[in-house]
Design a protein that fits this description.
The chain contains seven helices and 22 strands. By secondary structure, it is of the alpha+beta class. The chain folds into two domains: 267 residues, phage-related protein like fold; 77 residues, M1 Pyruvate Kinase, Domain 3. It has a six-stranded antiparallel beta sheet, with no helix packed on it. A hairpin with a 4-residue loop joins β15 and β16. The chain is elongated and about 100 Å long. The relative contact order is 0.16.
Length: 430
Amino acid sequence: MAHGENIFGASMPEGRVNYAGMVHTQTFGGRDSFLKPRFLPEVLRRYPTGNVKLTAIIDSMMRKKTTSTDIGFTIENIRYPTLTLVSDMPPATSHQASTIEVDDVTSILPNMIFVLGAFGEQVMVTDIVGDHQVVVIRGMGTTRAFGAPAGTQMLFAGNAFEEGSLRPLGMMSGMEKLFTQTQIFRNGWATTETMHAVATAQGINVTSRSKADASYYHATDIESAVMFGQQSNMVIRGKPQRTFSGLVDVVRYNAPQNIINVDGDMNYDDLCSVFEMFGDVQIGENPSTSRIIYGDKTFVTAFHQLGMKYGHLMRMTTDSSDSFGQRFRQFVTPRMTFNVYEHPLFSIRRMPKGMAIVVDPSTMELHYLRDTRVSYFNATESGAYDSMSVDGGVDARGGDFLSELGFVCTNPAANGIVYGFTGAKCNASC
């Protein structure tokens, strides 16, 4: 690419691109800059709105302190006994012992009782003889041992022990160890002394403005990592560098079943079937039944269209103004409540069209090894020149923001990713 040319082929004047480094008198175009008296002494910043929606919620709810760059935690997966026949179970005599083939015996113990289907034969497990074989007592209930074909699901119906029985084995739960680590974020600002002198003479605090920009980028960089980061360990200039996995990567590796491509339009029934699954796996005795959905513009627009098809259009009138229309922020299913918001970073990052992340904030934590701090060189906190501060040999003043933290998702299966939702359609009820 030729010097001064952008990816769209348009030429760019030299000296106008300066997104990193120090702010100097050429940053805004030299003689044609806003510093000339005929221009207003303010620069209007065009920022995407609400860029740090997710980290703002997590930081207010689940902010913790860590004493290490490595963060480990354990998830206990409660296993519910389930069996599915992998071969036909032929008819038998009631109370007869039979060996049957099943899909998995991981969560099975002797004396557990199962029913074939909702109203079928009842059997009791007496022994586990292999990874896929159990010995059962056939037809032990009110339904005779008629048998069942392969693929029949066997519903758990408790257990039963004889008088004077021996103490049973304990049920083993699944323990899953997850690891993450801290990441160092830094964003700096700097203004040459010449630029500072010119701006000050015209009543402009360019140093304060540059610091505000650095603060904005610092917060946005952390938000981006929390959503899209991938874990890595490298050595840069002989020193260790770490990055953590954001929510998308956590779901991708630990709950891939929660990444759903809806591939087009949805109606309300589709919406319920897709999003209610995020409440299937919970943590604790009182799990959250609400989720936040952050989507791109396409997703939010499609969701609004769906609400318009199933809702009622209203005309809202006040003494001072008239308005027409409706805005949908929430939808409710029989099990869950979802609050829907647009996240501008999704459109900026050119993510898959119609994408959204489904978030359970109660499962997320930010672990700070070092809280955000601000440092200065050649300047005090007010921006005044300080020749005694660090880097006194540089003809500029500035500073930087630094945070070191890790992102933890304690229940990946409660979160998810949906993409491809591009429009609304009706079912019979709308």
